[in-house]
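Retro notes (design track)

What went well: tokenization of the new backbones is finally stable.
What didn't: we kept losing track of which sequence belonged to which structure.
Fix going forward: every design gets posted as structure first, then sequence, in one message. First example under the new rule, 358 residues:
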């Protein structure tokens, strides 16, 4: 752990945060990821860099011993915090069983008439327990499923949903439970005695159904926008394939080309690759040896340097069709991977498929 080096963009983004002591950065990243997936609603979940900016100072401000001392006194917020730190190993020794005990204590305290435990903390504890049980759904080799762990994950996720709290974890568990109900085909799993209990997770299944309707509406709305301005949502460079969920995810040409054909790009390299084809539309009267025709002059960017293009699109959602076995493709969407990395990954997968190693 002491040799772990944080990603360079984390150091540059947060300055003093990790420049002096990088010990435990992996655990801090795990903490931020776990909290984001369990203790925020799916529509409020932030990127890991944003979560680091929010949670890392909190971890540094209070040691695990301080948190656990308060938790022992049944401070419900610190019971939750102590469990998350034990689960991720942030500032303490990782102990998954101890983490679950902290969270279960919240539910026990909530049943005591003299204990004041907010609905929010109870919902977060249930979401954390759903995540912990979901991690136990397969054996160490991912060869067989533990259907009892899946049911327990569904039980806790349903409890969180009953409070109206729908975290990314709750949706993940709920979606899988729905798949099992509709098509119980996991090999080597005996579903008898489980399916009816799965069907009784009313709050969880209702939350999944609502989210599916939202996603259908979002997709329809997005498709309408793309149909009106397709060039604004897809990188114009030949062979690139990067698409953006929002216009701000790509950089548009700032030249004199007509708005209806104005191209967008995911990177400086893509703009250069497309410049030969686009130049006659963008600068039709320029001489062929005119250096002002360089594409750097016409891309929409607020600084003279193109080297900071990644900072303009960082955190924006991009998608790319990835090759899959059988000649199929899978659309991959990410807010953390750069377009360049996504394309590199696509090309690597493509090569491995051709070689027959995937």
């Amino acid at each position: 752990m002491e040799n772990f080096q944080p990603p360079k963009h984390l150091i540059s983004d947060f300055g003093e945060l990790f420049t002096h002591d990088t010990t435990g950065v992996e655990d801090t990243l795990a903490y931020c990821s776990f909290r984001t997936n369990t203790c925020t609603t799916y529509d409020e979940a932030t990127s890991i860099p944003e979560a680091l900016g929010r949670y890392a100072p909190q971890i540094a401000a209070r040691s695990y011993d301080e948190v656990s001392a308060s938790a022992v006194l049944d401070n419900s917020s610190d019971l939750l915090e102590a469990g998350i730190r034990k689960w991720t190993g942030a500032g303490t020794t990782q102990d998954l069983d101890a983490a679950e005990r902290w969270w279960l204590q919240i539910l026990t305290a909530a049943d005591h008439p003299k204990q004041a435990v907010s609905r929010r903390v109870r919902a977060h504890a249930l979401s954390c327990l759903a995540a912990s049980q979901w991690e136990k759904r397969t054996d160490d080799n991912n060869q067989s499923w533990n259907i009892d762990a899946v049911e327990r994950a569904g039980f806790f996720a349903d409890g969180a949903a009953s409070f109206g709290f729908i975290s990314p974890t709750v949706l993940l568990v709920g979606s899988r439970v729905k798949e099992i109900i509709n098509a119980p085909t996991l090999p080597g799993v005996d579903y008898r005695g489980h399916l009816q209990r799965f069907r009784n997770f009313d709050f969880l299944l209702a939350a999944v159904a609502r989210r599916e309707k939202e996603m259908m509406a979002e997709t329809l709305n997005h498709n309408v926008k793309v149909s009106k301005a397709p060039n604004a949502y897809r990188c114009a460079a030949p062979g690139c394939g990067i698409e953006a969920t929002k216009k701000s995810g790509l950089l548009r040409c700032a030249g004199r080309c007509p708005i209806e054909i104005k191209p967008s790009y995911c990177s400086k390299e893509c703009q250069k690759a497309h410049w030969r084809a686009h130049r006659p539309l963008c600068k039709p009267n320029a001489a062929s040896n005119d250096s002002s025709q360089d594409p750097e002059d016409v891309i929409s960017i607020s600084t003279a340097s193109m080297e900071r293009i990644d900072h303009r699109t960082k955190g924006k959602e991009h998608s790319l069709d990835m090759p899959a076995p059988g000649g199929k493709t899978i659309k991959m969407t990410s807010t953390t991977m750069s377009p360049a990395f996504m394309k590199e990954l696509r090309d690597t997968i493509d090569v491995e498929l051709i070689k027959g190693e995937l």
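Added context from the reviewer: Confidence is low (pLDDT under 50) at residues 1-23, 296-313.
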